[in-house]
Amino acid sequence: MQISDEIFKILQGDSRDILKDIKSNSVQCIITSPPYWGLRDYHRENQIGLEPLLDEYLSQLEIVFNELYRILKPNGVLFLVIGDGYTSGNRKYRAIDKKNPSRLLAVRPDTPPGLKNKELIGIPWKLAFLLQKNGWYLRNDIIWHKPNAMPESVKDRPYRCHEYIFMFSKLEKYFFDLSKLKDANHKLLRSVWAINTSSKSAIHSATFPLELVKYCIYSSTKPKDIVLDPFCGIGTVGIACVETNRGFLGIDINDLYINEAIQNIKEII
Beta strands 2-4 and 192-194: pairing type? Predict the structure, then answer.
């Protein structure tokens, strides 16, 4: 199940398997947001994100990002969008959140060793440091501020309204055009990007906005360069690539998401 031409391809399958067959040093930019740990069930066998132990989750992502390191061109850039979570208090499920029904989860991992109940886990930085240890250059931590973020059902801490975007490179020097990193008012962006959340999908509520993706694309690629998303969901990165004249390679394990991604992209090709 795929759409494909010379510089545009979407594949359905497990990234841990498909990435092995992709040529080394073949893509200029990677923009991706892997499944977050213990937050959603995508109802696919062997999916990343529902490992019972945090270390298992990180080790599975390590497999993916080691392949991505090989595939990225020496002067390429990786943008990793990743959110955090709280320990479950060893509760085995998460009830429906009235403000976000999609957060219902029938299984939840136990509290990781060394952490306490109701504690912020620090997953983004644990993953960032793991990649750093494996050879990636951690170049920047960008805060994605969500002005329209939904309030959480909590009363003993502030509502969260941000996620991290980590910028990595393979080498000390790489292609990056800061002059292209401008907002709608033509001002250079700094390390906090205020972008509203958006999702037009009825089956995937965890998509990132097109505007965010385009910031990454314009600053780190040129027309016709190839952009890879190994967890492409409903194809937001692919849509941005079509609209900015970039090539695209997308992978996702969920056939429903792939079908919607193909439909979304065919509508604008």
Answer: unpaired
Give the CATH number, domain containing residue 129: 3.40.50.150
- Fill in the DSSP letter of residue 46: T
249 three-class SS? strand
Our count of domains for the chain comes to 1
Quote the domain boundaries for residue 70.
Answer: 2-38+63-86+121-266
**Structural contact between residues 241 and 269, judged by C-beta atoms closer than 8 angstroms:** no
Could you report the per-residue pLDDT of 58-83, keeping only the tens digit for each?
999 999 999 999 999 999 999 999 99
| Residue 45 placed within a domain | no
Sequence-distant (6+) residues with CB within 8 A of 160 are: 84, 149, 152
- Does residue 238 sit in helix, strand or coil? helix
Of 95-99, 131-135, 200-204, 247-251, give the lowest mean pLDDT range.
Answer: 95-99
Within-domain flag for 12: yes
Sheet holding 8-12, edge to edge: 2-4, 8-12, 247-252, 226-229, 27-32, 72-82, 162-169, 137-145, 192-194
Give the E-state strand segments of 105-196 in sequence order. 137-145, 162-169, 192-194
Residue 172 domain-assigned? Answer: yes
Nearest to 190 by CA among 141, 233, 243: 141
pTM for the full model? 0.91
Instruction: Count each helix (H run) and each strand (E run) in the chain, helices first.
Output: 6, 9
